[in-house]
Every structure is written in structure tokens, then in C-alpha cells.
Design a protein that fits this description.
This protein is α/β, with parallel strands linked by helices. It is built from nine helices and five strands. Strand 1 and strand 2 (about 30-35) form a beta hairpin. Helix 4 packs across helix 5. It starts with a helix and ends in a 10-residue tail after the last helix.
């Protein structure tokens, strides 16, 4: 909470932490979370004990903390950019767009007055902001946003697994596992794969995609 408290002493009260999930995935959207916590609440850190980088938590821990964050936060927003736009824009601009969408989803009664962003800067947004390398270790808001983004994306990938069976999306969530590579080689890419990513392009050379985007 050190970053937030520095800002709190400077007069900021609605600090939004932002983080993303899915940048390295071969399939599915990139998802961003935005979380505003009630700064000055002395019991907040105890209530959110265990909140840290989502990659360090088990799926069950993430799900449990997701519910706590929804209860304790002043506002939570989620932004999602689909794979077709990732291919069109590139992953960094697409991630920035997801973060902008997440901010737009925050409760209008609590518009942020400062942004703490994990790693990326958001030059397209007219907010005071700070990008922090490994921000989820220094900012409780960013760590909470990391969990929100990860849980939201994982749930969405489970739904996509039912829509596109055989790829194992519910298991690997679109990331580059041996199971996923084998499915790509067997089935070819699906409409939710990122065709600009090298492993997907390689699979297209040996298999035709199961469907083309826009055919549904």
C-alpha cells in the first residue's frame, strides 16, 4: 500500500490501480482490471490480506480474493479487447485500450483522480498517473486489479472452451502449453486465436483454421 499512501498524503483519494491478464496468450482476449480502494480505511490491508500478484496465487485463492475485492473496493472495472483487435492493433496498444475500457467501467460516482499502472504508461489518457515495474508488489490497488483481470479472463476462457471444444481453453486459458500446441497442430486455429502470433501462424501453414473470423 506504500504507493497509495504517498498519494493519499498528497491529497489524492480515488487512486485506481490497473493491471492486465492475457498478454502472452495465443488465444482469447487481453483483459484489464481497474480497482479503486478506500484509502484511509485502517482495516483495509487486513481485509485484503493475501492480495498480491495473481500469478502467485492458486485459482481457488484468486476466486476467494476476487469476491473480497468486490466487497471492499469503492469501484471495480473490467476492460476486454478481443483477439481480432489484438491482431489489428498489436498487443501493447490493445492492452492500453483494455485498460482505458476498464477505467470507463468504474462507477461514475468514483472517477479516479490518479492512476497506478503496472508496467505500462497510458499516454492516451488525461489522468495523473505513474507506471510501476512489478507494481503488484508495491501497490495493493494494482495487485487487486491483477486478480480482477485474471479471474475475469479465466472465467471467460472457460465459456469459450464450451464454444470451441477440443483446444483445452478451460485448462490452459489460451497460453502456450504442450496441450495447446498439440491441439493447434491437430485442429488448426480457431476464430479466437491470435493469428499474428508466431505459433498460430505456424499452425496455419499445416492446417486450415476451423473457421474464419466473422463467419459466426
Amino acid at each position: 500500500m506504500q504507493e497509495e499512501m504517498v498519494l493519499y498524503k498528497r491529497g489524492y483519494r480515488l487512486v485506481a490501480g490497473l493491471d492486465e491478464a492475457g498478454r502472452g496468450s495465443w488465444a482469447g482476449p487481453v483483459v484489464a482490471g481497474a480497482v479503486i480502494l478506500p484509502l484511509g480505511n485502517n482495516g483495509l490491508e487486513q481485509a485484503l490480506d493475501g492480495v498480491r500478484d495473481s500469478k502467485e496465487l492458486s485459482p481457488l485463492e484468486r476466486e476467494q480474493l476476487y469476491d473480497v475485492i468486490q466487497t471492499e473496493a469503492l469501484a471495480v472495472g473490467v476492460g476486454m479487447v478481443p483477439p481480432a483487435q489484438i491482431d489489428e492493433l498489436g498487443i501493447v496498444p490493445a492492452t492500453r485500450k483494455a485498460m482505458a475500457l476498464a477505467i470507463a467501467q468504474l462507477n461514475s460516482e468514483h472517477p479516479p483522480d490518479f492512476l497506478l499502472v503496472d508496467f505500462l504508461g497510458l499516454p492516451q489518457l488525461d489522468y495523473p498517473q505513474k507506471s510501476i515495474v512489478h507494481g503488484d508488489a508495491r501497490s495493493l490497488s494494482i495487485a487487486a486489479a491483477s486478480i480482477v483481470a485474471k479471474v475475469s479472463r479465466d472465467r471467460f476462457m472457460v465459456k469459450l472452451d464450451r464454444q470451441y471444444p477440443g483446444y483445452g481453453f478451460a485448462s490452459h486459458k489460451g497460453y502456450g502449453t504442450p496441450q495447446h500446441r498439440a491441439a493447434l497442430e491437430r485442429l488448426g486455429p480457431s476464430p479466437i486465436h491470435r493469428f499474428s502470433y508466431a505459433p498460430v501462424r505456424a499452425a496455419m501453414q499445416v492446417r486450415r483454421p476451423t473457421a474464419v473470423r466473422g463467419s459466426r
